[in-house]
Design a protein that fits this description.
Blueprint lengths: L6 E4 L5 H12 L3 E6 L3 H13 L3 E6 L5 H15 L4 E4 L14 H29 L2 E6 L13 H21 L4 E8 L5 H5 L7 H8 L10 H12 L10 E4 L12
Parallel strand pairs: 1-2, 1-4, 2-3, 4-5, 5-6, 6-7
């Protein structure tokens, strides 16, 4: 029971990677707060799934790009559970992006969700983490923030690179308070967001072509990220901070690939 008596807030947890992390954390006895923006029904179903197996979970609504909503969400979690020990900044937006021609609206939305959506939750939880001299913050970036394999994702890549930089800066500023800050950079993982990113109508051949780009010859599953996250937020990783861990099956098609 690696997370017993811990409270975890996971943003963007109504599906995909966030859902997988919520379930994995709950199995290790964390009390989980599942953040969603619009899909209350899906968030509630995940909570019910967790409660049915003896875990604790609540749905909490907030658009992470809006500071007032983030602050209200954190207050709700603290009112229910008393504190927040673990924050996973998982909520993110993927959108095709033409670096030369794209509109300011698309640029702004990527920045708001993918960068402000990391900063605001940290600001909201960090005071109490400092008071308790304990905290685990985990940011979810992407291998797109480390390199590039194809065109059309410049905006997404730039914001995810910023998440990696923020991770190091946050770790530097918060380490003296017993708070670790780390980052996971997933490769292609089988989630709704990844499939909408260009493989919505993917044939088995298309999926095999993606799998063949990994040294392990497969596409990642949400659980591959969830189990990595579980380690990084546990006490087993208490001396690890400011790190970005690539979890991509060993991608072979990157122009640059280093942390």
């Amino acid at each position: 029971m690696r997370l017993e008596n811990r409270v975890a807030l996971i943003t963007g947890a109504s599906r995909g990677l966030g859902k997988a992390m919520a379930i994995a954390f709950a199995k290790e006895r964390a009390s989980v707060a599942i953040n969603y923006v619009k899909n209350y029904k899906q968030a509630q179903l995940i909570c019910e799934e967790i409660v049915e197996v003896g875990g604790k979970a609540i749905p909490v609504q907030a658009d992470v790009s809006k500071v007032e909503e983030v602050n209200a969400m954190v207050k709700t979690v603290e009112d229910v559970y008393g504190n927040i020990d673990i924050l996973v900044n998982n909520a993110g937006l993927f959108a095709p992006f033409n670096l030369i021609e794209d509109s300011p609206t698309n640029i702004d939305r990527l920045y708001e969700v993918n960068i402000k959506g990391v900063i605001y939750p940290v600001q909201a939880v960090v005071d109490k983490m400092k008071e308790s001299n304990y905290g685990r913050i985990l940011n979810i970036s992407s291998i797109a923030g480390l390199g590039t394999a194809f065109a059309g994702t410049s905006g997404y890549s730039a914001t995810k690179a910023a998440v990696i930089s923020l991770t190091k800066r946050m770790a530097l500023e918060l380490g003296e308070f017993g708070i670790t800050v780390n980052c996971i950079a997933p490769g292609f993982i089988k989630t709704d967001m990844a499939l909408r990113g260009g493989l919505t109508e993917a044939s088995p051949e298309d999926l095999k072509a993606v799998a063949d780009k990994a040294m392990l010859n497969r596409i990642g599953e949400p659980e591959d990220i969830a189990y990595t996250a579980l380690f990084l937020v546990s006490d087993e990783a208490s001396f690890i901070t400011a790190q970005t861990l690539t979890v991509d099956g060993g991608r072979k098609d990157f122009l640059s690939h280093s942390a």
